[in-house]
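ugh ok fine here u go
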Amino acid sequence: MWGKRIAVLVFSLLLTGFAVSVAHAGTGVTPASTSWVSADRGWVLGVDTLCPTFKCTQLVRTLDGGASWTRVTTPPLSIPEADRLRVMFANDAAGMVTNGEQLFVTSNGGNRWEASGIKGTVGALGFDHSGFLAVSYDGTSSRLFHRELWFGSWQPVPGIEVKGQAFGEIADGQVALSTFGEENRYWTRSPAGWMEEPPPCDIFAATQLGAVGTDRYALCSFDPGFGNMTKELRKSEGGPFKTVSVPPREGITTGFAISSEAALVAATGRDWSFVHRGVGEKWETPLVLGGPPLEDLAFSSSRHATLVRGGPGQEFAEVYRTDDAGSNWKLLKI
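structure:
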């Protein structure tokens, strides 16, 4: 896969090429988003409290699991008023940052950033085997855009579009676009290109996607109540999606991640945030925290996962990680 090849070619450059300062725990960055490509290598994007204007964003990275952090060249990304800062990397080289209006990409680990030029509200972010993917809403419809890794401009992917501002979800070889109660469409990618298939969730459910090997997964969340909602984990082995497990109803879903070891669901409700952990049909809730929601839940390997709790302007702004597929969590110092 191109990501592994790039990681090997660029890794030595990344160690020497950043014009930055090294900071151990205490970078002055209030975390808003995090993305990891392995247990050791990850990024955090947030607000720089050392900035004289208090309006600067700053990206930092770690090569040792969070023991030390390095300030990385950060594009001129304004702090959003309504949306949130987000960062996503596919490997040591290819990454994206956005505030919901601006979108910047890098193909060399953050040494140089390029503005996307996409007009509209930036939604879901992701990658495929050849480049960057992003969902954007232009005021009329929501579309999937693609850009080659090394060069070129962003172009809409033919056929992957719905009217209105859609909830978008991108996972390995999968894209879903949905407007609640009206439309829910789903596409998968093969060597022949993108093909539309029946969606895993209905029009009254939020769809979140994942994959383990060739198996595709979807978390369908629906029937919200006061601080809770029904959640169903569905699986496809090439055919229709079928419900294989039912996570706890506690909390409104804010995140989903799956690996060969476990499925994880982040949820928030009634002043509490949860991580539910499922192995097969059995579920437990190993992490319960008061306060703001948990975002950016993702696996970087079968056993290592991370998330952000809260963010700038909220009661907490913290990054947590697990080294045992979600059974235990620890706070990282940024």
